[in-house]
Fold these 2 entries.
Entry 1:
Amino acid sequence: MANTPTVTKRSSRVLRENAAGYAFIGPMFLGLLVFTIVPTILSAILSFSEWSFIAGIDKIKFVGFSNYAKLLDDDVFLLSMKNNLVLLLAVPIQIVVSLLIAVVVDRLVYFKSLFKVVFFLPYISSIVAVAIVFQLLFHPSYGPINSFLTAIGIDNPPKWLADIHYALPSVMIILIWIGIGFCLIVYLAALQSIPRDLYESADIDGAGAWTRFSRITFPLVSPTTFFLLVTGLISSFKSFDIIKVLTEGRPANTTSVITYYLYTTAFENLKTGYASSIAWLLFGCVLLITLVQLYGQKKWVNY
Amino acid sequence: MRYKHIAGRAVATFLMLIVGIAFVLPFAWMISASVKPEIDVFKYPIEWIPKQWMAYDNYREVWFGEYPFVTYYWNTIKVTVLTTIVSVVVSCMAAYGFSHVDFKGRNALFVVVLMTFMIPSASILVPQFMIFRWLNLFDTHLGLILLGSFSALGTFMMRQFFLGIHKDYLDAGRMDGAGHARIFVGIAMPLVRPAIATYAILRFIWTWNDYANPLIFLRSDALSTIQLGIQKFASESGVYYSLIMAGTVSAILPLIAIFVVGQKQVIEGISLGGVKG
């Protein structure tokens, strides 16, 4: 009986704490619920249906796994998927180049901060602007790149974005160009955290530049490399803006990617159900990379 | 030994300058093309500094000609500023809740928030579009602002900073009888001010550059943002490349300005969390 006031006081404190907690996270949680969680569930349900969102909700028809089965026979989808896989190649290239630049810029140059800004410019510029500029730079007949190539004696320079063989590599070059700044900044931060005396004792042992890089720098930044690899692969799968503005999948779908095909299927051909099954395959790819990350982090990375 | 060192540095700097040129040239070409007459744009050898200037005419044509660039600009500023403010407030609140309020189900809810982080935005465009129609958010700036404001990334990033606040500061407030609301506004927020600046600048850059969301969730030209605007301008005005470049420069310039001012915050934010937009 004597305890009652303290108990009520305590439980009212707990209640108040709970109420405060829900009030603080409420707006964010509600937003994520409406704009992310519910759409994810809806997308999963719709992926088993044949439906177009301009028809009423009563026109919806559930077709089981047939959307997914159709995807396996869909040439444009398979080509887009293949292009996505090819574009993944840009990620390791970009990582290697930015590590090299980072090592040089970190300790060996004057004007370090100027270089940081220069390499970072593409990252802060909008993809739309970058894509428009590169469309002109790569222009097959009078773009400056081909004018230059012709001037130095190359008679038939590639038609870049207009050529079915060169279009995807051109996209890749642009992706690498955009992505280096981000990797570089992350690498520079990682290099800062390597203790200087490791290099000093290597110097005393007479280790050359390559030994220092391969025995000290490379192993010690491996968590960063792994992180950049995973985020790079995921964002490569998600890239949409660049394709939409730069090529719209042309020529002949040779630069189409999953997200772009998803966009045209959903918003131009209005096949909501089919588009949702593409969306879930995309989600599956991203999930797969994430799982490999969780598993691989313990296994491959030297801490 | 010392001379050798200086020579080595000079060589490395020179090498990096050459690599750096590949990063600057496209921007230099863009700016150069935007201030010259159309017929000089593709002239080769490239006239980096134009012999004949058309800067005034080009930019006037873009800004006050057929396409409402002033409107695009105003729309972008409005959407970007409001998204940044709402996103910072909502993210900080959630971050404080997830780090310093001890409520039931906190960990489970935080895991749910983190899981939304993995969902590619392209995967949910279609249902988002439907929900926008149902809630009458389609073709409104409000919808775009809301969409940009709720991000697991913001919550996660700010939570890291809130976790860094020593409990003693907050406990001192509690001793004085302050509730969570007062502690949050009066003690916690001021302590993470540099982190707020970092997140705000990153969110500003991402929103300003966002193209996919305006493309899908806006329809009226009068509501278009600058990214949508220059893309429309580039694909519809066909061969007026100097004007297209003037539009592109106009779209990028404010960001470069912000980056130059907030460079330290941006680079810190990127290197700290390794966050990606």
Entry 2:
Amino acid sequence: MRVLCCLDGTNVEQVSKAVSTMLRASTMTIGILYVTDTGPQEEMHRHRERFLRPPHPPLPRREQMRQAEEASAREILEEGRRYLAGAETLQRTGRPEREIVNSAADWHADVIVICSRSPRDGGPSLGPKSIGHVARFVLDHAPCPVLLVRPLSGNTFPIPQ
Amino acid sequence: MFLLFPIPVVTRTLLISLITIFTLVGIMVRPWKTNEALIALAGAGLLLLLGLITPAQTFFTLAQDWNTFFFFLGMMSLSALAETAGFFDWLAAWVARRSGNSARRLFLNTFLLGSLISMFFSNDATALILTPIVYSLTTRLRLPVLPFLFACTFIADTASFLLPVSNPINIIVLSTFPLDLWTFLRLLFIPSIVVISINIGVFFLLYRRQLHGQFDSKRLPRAAEAIKHQDYFRYTCIVLLLVAISYVTAAAMRVPLSLVAMAGALVLLIGAWYWKQSTLQATGKQISWSIFGFIAGMFIIIQAVESTGLTAQFGQLLFRLSGGTSLGAVLVGTGGAALGTNLINNVPMAVVLTSSLHSLQHAPLAVQHGFIAATIFGCDLGPNVTTVGSLATVLWLLILRRRNLDVSGLDYFKVGVVVTPLMLLAGAVTIWLLLL
């Protein structure tokens, strides 16, 4: 079984816990995926246009941002490998929701493990809108079953009638 | 084709109005992603070609606004040369190291640094130079990028009326209505502090969950790494400090601020050349020359509109809407400027309003000052409503969203639409209170 785990830099502990309780390590190939989101850079391009400038910043600044993204992605994936020993690493750049779905198809994943939302997203962890837009898109478009990891604690239950 | 034969006044007014409307709509929509400067220059060129404005009038208009052109040139050159020295990277790294590993303190420091840079180097420097630096920093620190990015882009505009040099729009308005420094500060400094505080407070509330926790300072670059050449860096710091002092002194003595910006840029360029850090050509490449075409085109078009008397009538309309009171002047001026900047762009809106306010010379001084301060305030802060550029861009993003494409630009709009009207109202009321 091939299990694709989607990391966002904050959720590796949750994801690894979910994977280890799901299956015995010997029966599966684990892939850890990190996507560098291009959304914020698109914001910057739009903002530069408002200031009547070309959308892309000058080359040295682009290089500085690329290096920062590269260093961060490498670090997150290394951290992932410390939690999920022997995992294959996949690094992509683009809109996370699309890259996750496309990577799952390319990598022939049998299961995708994803958190409902990043703890830093700010949304609710339970109830309506508790699934962030990335997880929502993956649930809607994934080419295989999805294991949704939720940051729930026992004291949120029972749900009031 | 020149219209060499005399044309009736009504036809002339109609032709000028049509060309102006087409140009403004062109700037709004930007068909085939055409550069705004080309659209503005095409409009101005058509007016000249049809003889609706004479070459002499054009020359006189552009020569009259030399302070604005040279300020833009000096400001962009100063920022480019300071960037070459690593000044902004050094400041950002220094500020990050003083955040005590706290994401919240780093967020607050980003606002404070953005305010300081906008105050002395204009909102361009914060929005265009500080934003990618903060993006790189927060990416390395593995902090949520968007709140910090929004902080930079918002504070660029929110802190852009602390001083006359904080936004080129201020120079456009003040070149026509030269308020003395004391009046400028009296009317706009406290409103600046009020809206900056609101901006920071609301952002802390909006992003409270994303900002909890600590970051690992080992991931931070050392401030010294940003310095490319030790001597040139020290020289740049001294020159920039002198420029900052000179800006305030020159504004107090009513010396054109473009002279300070140009002199500062020249002194920095000499240093950069001496230490082989930059050349005239390299600095020239960092300057966005198309901005000059855009401003020149807009100045010419609005001069033509002014000659028809339409802007004077618009000014009178604004005066009637204000009810002749200072509160009305501030509210109408702020609202009109904010709406206009989001429909087109703040440069043409500032030029239109400045031209319109000529007709208010007989209005009471408090009303005149109310309109001038509100024009600066609304044109500087107004763009934060849509942030992505204009309402046309927002509409386009909404269409994309309906096609199930995730559009993060709308996140910007959501924040802008919540925060900016609040800041506009609070700032306008503060200006009014200061007018009493």
